[in-house]
Amino acid sequence: MFTQGEMMMQDKLEKERCDAKNAVEEYVYEMRDKIANVLAQFIKEEDAEKFGSLLTQTEDWLYDEGDDQLKQVYIDKLKELKKHGSPVEDRYREHCERPIAFEELGKSITHIRKFLDLVANKDEKYDHIETGDVDKVKKCLNEKSEWYEKNMNAQNQLKLFENPTVLASQIMSTKKSLDSVCNPIINKPKPKVEPPKEEKKENKEGDKDGQKDSAAGEKSANNSAESEAKPESKQEMEVD
Fold first, then answer.
1. Is-above-0.90 flag for pTM?
2. Closest CA to 78 of 96, 58, 101
3. Which of 106, 128, 140, 224 is deepest in the core (most CB within 10 A)?
4. What's the CA gap between 136 and 183, in Å, rounded?
5. How does pLDDT run across 135-149, given as a tens digit for each residue?
6. How far apart are CA 224 and CA 142, in angstroms?
7. Reduced to 3 DSSP states, what percent helix, strand and coil does the chain have, rounded to the nearest 5?
């Protein structure tokens, strides 16, 4: 007689076994449809026939001796199928992502070329950039531009069912490397221009003189007011 904990464990293992079996079945149906449609251009005709035959054999196996196997048997079966299917899916995914990556790298290259053109034309916006930094940008741009053109041309020579010469992740990594070297130089702010020290000193002395003149003026005004007030007081006393 099984305890409640043992029964729960049996249920858990059975569910995992069924899930593994269903994963194989789902993969068979999914890939059979894909290689006949969206993935058709990304697999050779003879390879598609072999893979299709393997999928059919797997389906037949599932409804025969493969109906009640251990979980690991299904895991191994799915792994074997993916050896044939994953490279095809990878080629399709790269075909979708690679043009976008090349475009992004191309934008960075164009942006940096415009910067170098402005520097060559003595644009005052970049007159604070040192020659050594400009040379550093030129060198990096030349290296990445050459890499860009070489890999794009090589990739364009391949058929869709051939493995790519360069991955989208490699292209984006190249863009990141280019940007990390060049952008800090391009975006380097101009140093702040402070007024000469002598001018500051003159301004301070002028402020002091102004304060003195103002104080003197106030004192003179006060004295005048007092002198005008005194005669009036004397007249009042005489009248009394």
1. no
2. 58
3. 140
4. 11
5. 999 999 999 999 999
6. 82
7. 85, 0, 15
Amino acid at 237: M
CA dist list (Å): 117 to 21, 73, 134, 146, 222: 62, 64, 11, 18, 69
Q: How far apart, in whole angstroms, are the C-alpha atoms of residue 137 and residue 131? A: 10
Instruction: Identify whether the C-beta of residue 28 lies closer than 8 Å to the C-beta of residue 51.
Output: no
Residues 87 and 211: their CA atoms lie apart, in Å, by 85
Rounded CA-CA distance 73/27 in Å is: 15
Record the tokens describing residue 198, joined without a space.
């002598």
Distance between CA 73 and CA 22 in Å, rounded?
12
How far is it, in rounded angstroms, from Cα 172 to Cα 102?
A: 8
Residue 235: pLDDT band with limits 50, 70, 90: very low
Average pLDDT of every residue of the chain: 87
| Tally of CA atoms within 13 A in the half-sphere of 130 that contains its CB | 5
pLDDT in tens, 196-208: 766 555 555 555 5
CA 20 to chain CA centroid, nearest Å: 37
Cα distance between residue 181 and residue 175, in whole Å: 10
Would you call 181 exposed, middle or buried from its count of C-beta atoms within 10 A (0-12, 13-18, 19+)? middle
pLDDT digits 0-9 by tens, 7-18:
888 889 999 999
